[in-house]
Design goal:
With about 900 residues, the chain is an alpha/beta fold. It contains 29 helices and 37 strands. Strand 32 and strand 33 (about 805-810) form a beta hairpin.
């Protein structure tokens, strides 16, 4: 990929002409401030004002109405009273103006009348094809264009940071902080009420924006989780993304039927979402500033081992403590580095990390210590701390740091503590590109966030192992269980039903039977085999142990009868209103080496189902040892989840206990992911406890809460991440009788994809990659196999020997209506009709998903591919300025021929 067309939001974010509707001659009004900011920023394009009382405002041509504008401008900025906005948006659409920024407040935030007006504005925008930022937003800055369409005080410096925020106040505060620090922005975008354009679409633009190198997000709420997740994952593969999410501790709590629902809060799920996307989350505005400062200075450590150089022991300890809290290891200095420091520093220096230069340190000590650390292969980054001392000239020490940082392969950050005697030196550091902070903790946080980003990027390149063939779940039986309960008006499955559902998904469960009387309990116990456990069955009792509703180790019939009478008596006393249906009898599981675990599903109102895993047993709410992940999961994600819990250490060899069978735990979590993916009716679920030991893992108890799903809805609409589209798997028989499987690619196909490319002939690779590519890099492999099924598709052809023999792919383009395709067929399979068959399937999928044009670029010398394109109905034409390639394009929807544009995302291999 390399030719990039104009993004469909370019008229909004890269306008060549702007009209300010509601411009005012009075500088204290919003319309006056907006006009002043547009003029002060020296907008590069054409600027008009709309105000019926003036013909000209501060040198800007002014017209009475939108209709009277001399051209259909790219962008209209509206700052008029709320009741007028819907009509103005409609007028913009009629004029051919495709984008508006609505500054005006007084809509949804002001009550029912305001919500009705906002709905009218959005309806007008959609009816006329107008894209809208806002309403009730600060506006938009694009400093490189001289565009400041905000009512903020002052404008941002040009730079590479993009800020996307739901709060205008956060925008103004960060810009106000950044300007004196010399930090610039490519964009400052205030979403306001996000009536039309939300995070997802704005992120997509910034991901492809060449002026943007780093992205900061301030999030108060999420409207479209599926779009946000797709955009975050796409952006994070290309650029560092840092998010601050507020509302982490919502007041109050909800009643939850399951353990899972009781211990998982909404913030846990948001954390899981940002981890899955590979982005960095910060907790405070100060941390967002620290991350912005580091990103704006292009800090990019190769690892997270930190060295601290200081002229004061206390600040060094402060930095070390914060590093420990953030999981940043202090670098262990090599013997060579220690020896080098011994020769350069006083005898009573700290002899370790943090490196205390002592209070009388001069610039030369800083220079020597920094040089030694930067040369140490065990150090990934250095923070230099200075506290005001009479013997340590702050400016001279700053010069030493600037000199050491210049051209260094590792990041150097600075903390000049204080103000009066060090402020000027700190500014010098910042202007020289060295991130400089007032407090040690902020410097450590800045390093931690960029190190975390680098770590996430490495994790994104990791691929899961190949899938192991497993028995498919019995979806029909599982759905029948749920539908029967719903038909009976029940939202909670009985214990036996819950275990049947787990068994339908091939999760090992303990044998159990229901009993409504003492004699039935004895019969059930004899059937499952003594000794047995007895548990109360009641839809009104969530936690059986709360009413002493569990009896263990019952070894004969008399013990079962006595336990039955005892249990029902206790429950009648403790919960007289509870409906008791009897008991369940289960085989006792004797696992002396067993560890108690818990896994479950909870339903987040924004991100849908989330999977939780951690320590189990009766104290699960107290221990709160859990990690949350978003489905669908794969083997690598499961391993990451398990590693994030405290109980993970107990799964290894522990005192006298052997290590547990980890694949058995992995398999249960993968099966629970299947439940979350394939059964949208499941609202809550917990499996607690799961007993795991060296022999495997088995579920002892489970509880499901279910609800009906609206008829006709996509069964995967509840997921924030598009699942594997198994419905697209087909069997194909070629004309020569060869049978193949055509299916979407999976992350687990990484090794197979690499082997496929390596086996291609030099000529086939040249035609596909338009150059000599011997094999795929880890980045390419991850990009080709870990795809977003909502935005792209890659079909692989698999032969009878389970080898990949072809791949056809499309990637959606920035114009949002077209896609670029690529196809390559193994040499031995060329000329057998496979390429034609795969392209037909790819075209059908793209058309069914609403794309309107498919484009590609083919070497002019690749005559077989050009003939195939002609047979498929593609129009073939020259590529302007490129005599080596031909542009091929296909209209996917009947009625009109559209132009596709090429985007910079990599295409298939």
């Amino acid at each position: 990929m390399g030719r990039m067309g104009r993004h469909y939001l370019s008229r909004l974010f890269e306008p060549a002409s702007v009209a300010l509707v509601g411009a005012s001659a009075q500088p204290q009004k919003v319309g006056g401030v907006l006009l002043g900011n547009l003029l002060a920023a020296n907008f590069r394009g054409r600027l008009y004002a709309v105000n019926p009382r003036h013909r000209e405002l501060r040198g800007v041509p002014c017209v009475a109405t939108i209709e009277a504008l001399p051209e259909a401008v790219d962008l209209a900025v509206i700052a008029t009273p709320a009741p007028t906005v819907a009509g103005l948006v409609a007028a913009c659409g009629a004029k051919g103006i495709g984008a508006v920024v609505v500054i005006t407040a007084g809509f949804g935030e002001s009550g029912a009348a305001g919500k009705a007006m906002e709905a009218d504005v959005l309806a007008a925008a959609r009816r006329h094809g107008v894209r809208m930022l806002g309403p009730n937003c600060l506006g938009l800055m694009r400093p490189s264009l001289g565009l400041n369409a905000t009512f903020a005080r002052g404008t941002a410096l040009p730079g590479s940071l993009a800020l996307l925020s739901q709060s205008g106040a956060v925008c103004t505060a960060l810009v106000d902080w950044a300007t004196p620090s010399g930090i610039g922005f490519s964009s400052v975008i205030s979403l306001g009420a996000s009536g039309d354009i939300d995070f997802g679409e704005a992120l997509d633009f910034l991901a492809f924006d060449p002026a943007t190198a780093h992205i900061l997000l301030y999030v108060e709420g999420v409207r479209d989780a599926r779009r946000l997740m797709g955009s975050l994952r796409a952006a994070a593969r290309m650029k560092p993304v840092v998010v601050m999410k507020v509302g982490r501790h919502p007041a109050g709590s909800r009643a939850a039927v399951s353990h899972t629902g009781a211990i998982v809060g909404r913030d846990d799920v948001f954390d899981a979402a940002v981890r899955r996307a590979g982005i960095v989350r910060v907790a405070t505005a100060g941390q967002l500033v620290a991350a912005a400062q580091a990103l704006g200075s292009a800090v990019a450590p190769g690892g997270d081992r930190l060295a601290i150089v200081t002229n004061g022991g206390g600040p060094g300890v402060m930095a070390a403590d914060r590093a420990t809290e953030l999981g940043i290891p202090l670098a262990e200095l090599s013997p060579a580095t220690i020896d080098r420091l011994q020769r350069a520093l006083p005898a009573h220096w700290s002899h370790g990390n943090p490196i205390d230069l002592i209070g009388d340190a001069d610039a030369e000590r800083y220079r020597a210590a920094l040089a030694a650390c930067l040369d140490d292969p065990g150090v990934d980054g250095v923070i230099a701390i200075l506290t005001p001392q009479a013997m340590t000239p702050a400016d001279d020490a700053a010069s030493a740091v600037i000199g050491a940082a210049a051209g260094a392969p590792k990041p150097v950050l600075a903390c000049w503590m204080g103000e009066a005697s060090v402020g000027a030196a700190r500014a010098r550091l910042q202007q020289a590109g060295v991130p400089a902070f007032r407090l040690p903790e902020m410097a450590v946080e800045a390093f931690a966030y960029v190190a975390q980003h680098q770590r996430h990027q490495r994790l994104l390149l990791e691929v899961p192992p190949p899938l192991v063939a497993t028995e498919p779940p019995d979806l029909e039986a599982a759905r029948a269980l749920i539908h029967r309960a719903l038909a009976e008006g029940r939202s909670v499955l009985a214990a036996t039903e819950s275990k049947e559902l787990l068994a339908a998904f091939r999760i090992p469960v303990v044998r159990s039977r229901n009993a409504a009387s003492a004699e039935e309990a004895v019969t059930a116990a004899e059937a499952v085999g003594f000794p047995v456990a007895m548990k109360i069955r009641s839809p009104d009792i969530t936690h059986k142990s709360d009413v002493h509703g569990i009896e263990l180790g019952l070894s004969n019939a008399p013990a079962v009868r006595e336990a039955f009478a005892r249990m029902l008596s206790r429950v009648a006393t403790l919960r007289p209103q509870a409906r008791v249906e009897g008991v369940s009898i289960e085989a006792m599981v004797a696992r002396p080496h067993g560890r108690e675990l818990m896994a479950g599903i909870t339903r987040d109102p924004v991100f849908g189902p989330a999977i939780t895993f951690g320590a189990g047993g009766i104290a699960v709410e107290v221990l709160r040892d859990r990690v949350v992940g978003l489905p669908p999961l794969n083997a690598r994600l499961v391993e990451d989840m398990i590693a994030g819990t405290r109980v993970a250490k107990m799964l290894e060899r522990f005192r006298h206990l052997p290590p547990v069978d980890r694949p058995a735990i992995d398999a249960i979590l993968l099966r629970i992911s299947e439940i979350a993916t394939e059964l949208p009716e499941v609202v809550e679920m917990d499996v607690n406890p799961i007993i795991a030991d060296e022999q495997g893992a088995i579920a002892l108890d489970a509880r499901f809460v279910v609800a009906a799903v609206p008829e006709g809805r996509d069964r995967h609409a509840h997921l924030a991440i598009a699942p594997y589209p198994s419905e697209l798997v087909t069997r194909e028989i070629l004309a020569d009788g060869e049978e193949l499987t055509l299916r979407p690619i999976r992350p687990e196909d990484a090794a197979m994809e690499a082997r496929f490319v390596e086996a291609l002939s030099v000529e086939t690779r040249r035609r596909r990659f338009q150059g000599t590519v011997a094999g795929l890099t880890p980045t390419m492999i991850a990009r080709f196999t870990q795809i977003d099924y909502d935005r792209e598709m890659a079909l692989v052809a698999i032969d009878a020997a389970a080898a990949q023999v072809a791949v056809a792919r499309y990637v959606s383009l920035p114009d949002a209506i077209s896609c670029e395709f690529a196809i390559v067929v193994a040499d031995a399979w060329q000329g057998r009709g496979l390429g034609h068959r795969m392209m037909q399937r790819l075209i059908a999928i793209a058309a069914a998903r609403g794309l309107r044009a498919m484009v590609g670029w083919v070497l002019a010398s690749n005559e077989p591919m050009l003939r195939l394109m002609a047979r498929l109905g593609f129009e073939i034409g020259p590529e302007p300025g490129d005599s080596l390639n031909r542009r091929v394009a296909l209209d996917l929807q009947a009625g009109e021929r559209l132009t596709g544009r090429r985007a910079p995302a990599p295409s298939s291999a």
